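pinned: reference chain
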Amino acid sequence: MKDLIRKILKEEGDFDWVTQHMQSIPDDPHYMALMECYGPEVLRGIEPKEWTHFGLTAYENEENEEYAVGTIEECDDSLKEYYENLVDEMGVEGWNTNVIDPMDYMYMTNTDIRMWADDMASSNMDGMDVEDYIEETSYSEKYEELSEKISDLESEINNIENQQIDMVDQDLEETEEYRELEDKLGELEDLLKDYEYQKDDMEYDAKQEYQEEVYEDYKRQLERDPIEFFTDMGIYSNTNEMVENNVLSFNEEEFINDLVDFGYYGEMSSYDGEYCRKNIGGEDYICLKLN
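pinned: its structure tokens
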């Protein structure tokens, strides 16, 4: 390794300090990578630090310049740690990346979609009058016809009852006419009960139909874009709230792995956001300037 350093020095022109201190420079490809990236001066008084930079070996020279060096594999692990920390700090919003969008890694489970759609549909029914949801269903016309029949029948029953009252006042309740009215009244009352049962059943079926329609509408909206749905409804103001409240699931592992696959190691540089890549002894090393 030191032969390689001598070769670099020879090509770039002897650097007295380095050539005089060759024995003090560890036989380590990390130093070779640093020198190829930043020049021989970077090695003046350089020493490894006790701390690491996201797991990468960190160094500081006598100019108090700090660097981090690692293999591609090591840098991938470090970049993963870096992104994990970033997600913890800033959540899922505000990412300044044009390679992938964290929103593409948001999803609702089918179970959660069904649960939310059902709850929203049920809440939508609260405070609604029967006529409100009847008008929105296929039962609207039939319900109106049945209501008119019931109203007509109630009027007819009321007329017969008034006739009976008059006949009682005239002591005619033992007459054939009175008995006919009484029989007619019984028939009409039975028919009224049957109509009322039909009306109750129709109201129940219409309510179920309307609630199912509302449920399907909410379900479609949630399947299409749950983030837009919750913000438009005013339930949550941002995506972080949705994730924190377990309304949305965030595939953090896949998101971070995809970011790492792009391999922009400069993200970990606290100095200029850049990185240097050099092949040393057949293996690629990444160097980062930290200050």
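why pinned: The CA atoms of residues 12 and 39 lie 9 Å apart. The chain has two domains: 2-99+262-289, 109-247.
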